[in-house]
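Before our next group meeting I need something from you. Please put the record directly below this note.
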Amino acid sequence: MYFNGVSLCLMIALLTGCSTSTLVENDRDAEVKITNAGEIVYREQTITEKQIPDLLRDDNVKRGETIHILVPLEQEQRNYQLMRSIADTLKQAGYGRIVFTTQKKAIGKLKEAAPVKP
């Protein structure tokens, strides 16, 4: 009798699922891009450096979060004066975790498996 009651409870729990829900937040860090032409892009819109803090606040980006600023891969195309100016603007607005990075693509290659000997 005890075994059937436990089995019934387990079956009901598995079939009905969890009765609570969890809010899953987007944990992707905020991303600003400096194009090769020196334009600043955020959420697919060209903006000015002075707009960045307000747009981050509008998107509920907290001051402790990391702000990724994508810069051109080629060093000759990077505008270091603009990069410093953006960093200063963000720091004055309270955003202290600023990371300048290049766009990198991860490419993986699978090796062919060795033939299995019978």
In short: Residues 30-102 form a domain with the Nucleotidyltransferase; domain 5 fold (CATH 3.30.420.270). Residues 19-27 have pLDDT under 50 and may be disordered. The beta strands are 30-34, 40-42, 45-47, 67-71, 98-102. The helical segments are 2-16, 52-58, 80-92.
